[in-house]
Fold these 3 entries.
Entry 1:
Amino acid sequence: MVKSRRRIKKRQVIKVSVNTFTRILALFYLLSATLCFAQNDEDYLILNEFLASTKIVSKVDTIYLRPTNQNSFSIGVVESERYKEEHPCAPENMELDYGFISIQRDSVVDQILNEQEYDYLLAQKANSEWDFSKINVSNVFRYANNRKKRGVEIISVGKPVYTRDKKAALVSISYYTRSGIMVFRKINGQWQGNKIIAPLLIQPKVQLWKE
């Protein structure tokens, strides 16, 4: 009788231990996934590269950056491309519902927007704020209102959406008068802006940036 009670108690201890381990393991995976898609150093390498290039191309010394870095536009492009692949008979102009012009596919875009990447890309939806202490480009300031400032560039930059191998990323860019998705590629350890895809229409049906 005593041995039987000991066996039952031992089984209960083992069962509790297994349940506890399972919960800890689940919590670990959840935390890992959260940290994986949280802001990281790669985000700021891309952001700083883009800001530095913008100052050169736009010939401006000062940039005002909106603090919000939501990437809903990038996610919308991914959703649209996935839907078109899964529904070949979808209307050709369905991109208008997302507010952008049809994407011109090529080998670079195909490496990012494909069946193997869609779930991973869509899991990276984010809506947070940039940490301005990690911006190492001079004369980049937080933009705090909606008034256009003369002689400066006002920009919104979404959190990058990465491929599984972390060698390419989609970044939503919004200037005062134009917007689109920029493809970044990691070449020899350095992030470089590759091309603009999905240019935004003048009067989009989606709102990219909410103050």
Entry 2:
Amino acid sequence: MIDLVMVGMMLLSVLLLFAAIPKWVGRADFLVTLKRLGISGKLASLVIWILPLAEVVVGIGIWFEELRMLSLIGLFMLTASFLWAIVRGKSKKLKCNCFGSMIDEQFGWKTAVRVILMIAIGLFVLYKKSIIPNTSDMELTDLLWSFILSVNLFGSYVLANSLAAYRKHV
């Protein structure tokens, strides 16, 4: 039976993986955003590799019982850095680059809500971690339904964002 914890874990994984890949592909844009946030050149050149790698590691690690606690700690560290970037970027009206060119948005309340939602889901998974079965014990159909639901939720967010941007320009 599919449960809310599994959907939450899958949603976190989907968000983190869909955030990491465009950052690697669009490193130049991501680097510009980091420098405009006030991160120095050498550190920014390191962050364009480390941040997406951390997102991938956390997004995958959450599924392994042995790594779940470390992954949740990593998630909270990532979200703290995201909140820092939102505070810095909002006043400068910077492009977020959270999902690369997939979503064209500036740092602001929408990004803050998304990060707070990630924190809430992470806390929920942390609270329920003792009842989460090992990944190998999970039903494949439940995993697939969780994945499909999570991708659809993310896709709906992307679509809503695109429609809002379109309405601004019409």
Entry 3:
Amino acid sequence: MTARRFILSFVALGILVPAAWFIFYWTIGKAKPDILRWIMLNTPTHELLLLLCPSSLLMMMDAEDKSYWLPVITIALNALLYAILGWLFWIGIKRSRIVLIGTAAVVLVGWYGLLNL
């Protein structure tokens, strides 16, 4: 696998995760807010969403749920974040193990910080 394909697979995942959440939210969540509330409060879905899509924190700026650009920006930022992580993991796998260890450490510390907001 080339570096380009490796990074593009990370970018695809970075787009897929928030896009799947927004599709679920707009199709089921808006139609049945009780189900959405139950899922967000009674399951670890909210924490998982924060771990896989840290840029979803931007959605708090749209309390009235009227913005069309904010979800696009959220998806784009998440794809950029995943591209950077993919690039760093590629360097870590192919060239320098210290980059791989450092990247993994930064991701773990970032996840810990997100979960303790």
